[in-house]
Specification:
- Helix content is 78%, strand content 0%.
- It has 145 residues and is mainly alpha-helical.
- It is globular.
- The longest helix is centred in the first third of the chain and has 37 residues.
- It has one domain.
- The protein has five helices and no strands.
């Protein structure tokens, strides 16, 4: 008969804390994967609806750019899907900071375009989501340091 395993309270908390830090990046990776696939497919196949939501005209040039952005979003989705189990490292920290900064910049640019009258209030939902995602990447970076 095996002896019961004795664990101290502090070692149990350290294990839970370690699991939580790893899970925060994994959660952000899953969220980014889903968002990247949805946005990528939407930009590639339904770019005109995105532009309409933002109050912009769907021209050949703008649809061309939508398809190119869609490819980037799909690439990011694959990157995060394949990297979701990455251990804490300098590379994972750089990915968190880079994505957080890029997404925060998107939120800032969306707000700026709205205030300049070049986008309608339809840009507010993406701006809010981008602020939340940027904060999530910051949180994942902070927790994985």
């Amino acid at each position: 008969m095996a002896a019961p395993v004795s664990r101290s309270w502090s070692s149990g908390c350290a294990a839970i804390s370690s699991l939580r830090l790893t899970m925060s990046f994994k959660i952000m990776a899953y969220v980014t994967t889903v968002a990247g696939f949805v946005l990528g497919l939407r930009f590639i196949f339904f770019g005109a609806s995105v532009l309409k939501q933002w109050g912009m005209e769907a021209t050949d040039v703008s649809l061309f750019m939508c398809r190119r952005y869609g490819a980037l979003y799909l690439g990011l989705a694959v990157l995060f899907l394949l990297g979701r189990n990455a251990a804490p490292s300098d590379l994972r920290s750089a990915v968190c900071l880079g994505m957080g900064a890029a997404i925060a910049l998107l939120a800032g640019l969306g707000s700026w375009e709205l205030s300049a009258g070049r986008a309608t209030c339809g840009i507010l939902v993406p701006v809010i989501v981008e602020v939340v995602l940027a904060a999530g990447f910051g949180w994942a970076w902070w927790g994985g340091r």
